[in-house]
Amino acid sequence: METTQENGGRETFETVWAALEATRVLVEENLQSIREMRESQKENERQMRESRQATERQMKATDKRIGELGNRFGEMVEYMIIPNLLTQFEELGFTFTKANRTEIKDKAHDIFAEIDVLLENGDKVMAVEIKSKPDIDDIKGHLERMEKLRRYADLHEDKRAYLGAMAGVVFGESEKTYALKNGFYVIEPSGDTFAITKPEGKYRPREW
User: Fold this and answer.
1) Which of 29, 37, 153, 202 has the fewest Cβ atoms nearer than 10 Å?
2) Where do the H-state alpha helices sit in 77-111?
3) What pTM did the predictor assign?
4) Taking the domain 77-197, which CATH number applies?
């Protein structure tokens, strides 16, 4: 017959063992949860990596299309817009003898600029920026471009007056007003051709 002390010892042992077993089960469950979490993280990383690669491929394709459109746009400017610009500006009193797209790359003086159309004669230069739908930032960008052109001209002892024009397929009223306010000529579609609005009244053409 077991003594009371032996019964107490067994009960204590069984209680401790049960607690240890419960702890073991809990630890295994936690470890399983951690393993599942790791697998989930790996899957998320894989999906993110595939998504990133797909995005990069799409961006490259988009850049290629933009480049192709840019080339076509340049051809359109050269063969369709420039001849009409010369005629339109002549009606405003400008007789430009040269018209072309221009790119300035002056590494020595850190001057880089692209001009969609540069109209020139012996006294004046008109730099035309063309956008499908000009916004305020485009106009501000052209103001910065005009400053670069002036700086570049001074470095090459070019004393001609530089003027600017903004051309757009769709011109909002606020953008048009902002361009005129800053002294730019505004070029926009009109019927089968386009019209040029001169800054006048409270606005004046700006020279750089």
Assistant:
1) 202
2) 82-91
3) 0.63
4) 3.40.1350.10
**DSSP annotation of 48:** H
Q: Could you give the CA distance from residue 196 to residue 180 in angstroms, rounded to a whole number?
A: 11
Distance CA(105)–CA(118), nearest Å, equals 15
Using alpha carbons only, give the angle 56, 58, 62 rounded to the nearest 5 degrees. 115
Closest Cα to residue 172, out of 192, 188, 190?
188
Which class for 139: exposed (0-12), middle (13-18), buried (19 or more C-beta within 10 A)?
buried
Q: For tokens 């295994």, what's the residue? A: 28
pLDDT single digits (tens) 88-117:
899 999 999 998 889 999 999 999 999 989
Between strands 193-197 and 161-168, the pairing is unpaired
CA-CA distance, 183 to 161, in Å (whole number)?
A: 13
Structure token digits, residue 49 = 């990596």
